[in-house]
Amino acid sequence: DGAGSVGVKDSAESLRSIYREERRETALQICSFLLFAMVFLGLLFLLSSSVVLYYKISADKSEELDRAALLMRIGVTFREYKKDLALRLGILFFSPLLFGGAFGLFLINEVISVSAAAYAGYLMKRVFLVFTVFVLWNFLMYSSLRRKIMREILL
To answer: How far is CA 123 from CA 41, 107, 112, in A?
Structure first.
C-alpha cells in the first residue's frame, strides 16, 4: 500500500509545471560548469603560451645583445634601439592577444548568446574579466622581459 502511494507521488511530481525560476537555476548550473571549464582551460593555455614565449625570447638574449651591439656600432642611438626593442617585443606579446583574443571573445559571445541567452550579460562580464587578467599578465611579462634585456645591454 505504501509502495503504491510513492509511485503515484512520483508520477504526480513529474507532471507538475516547471517554473521559470527553476528553469533559470538549471540553466545557470549548466552554464556555470561550462564557463568554469572554458575559463580554466583558457587560462591554462594562455598562461602557458606566454611563459613559453617569455623563456624563448629570454633564451635568445645573446643574439639580442649581438644585434644591439651591431646596431649601436653603425650609429643607432640607445633611445632608438629601446624603441625598436619595445616595438618588436610588443608585437610578439600582444598580436596573439589582438587576433586570437578578439576571435575567441566573438566565439564565446556567440555560444553564450545561443545557449544561455538569459545569462549572456553575466557570463560575458566574467569572460571579459578573465581576458583583462590575461592582458595584465601579458603586460607584466612584456615589461619584465624588456627590462631584463635592457639591463643586460647596459652591462
So the answer is: 16, 13, 7
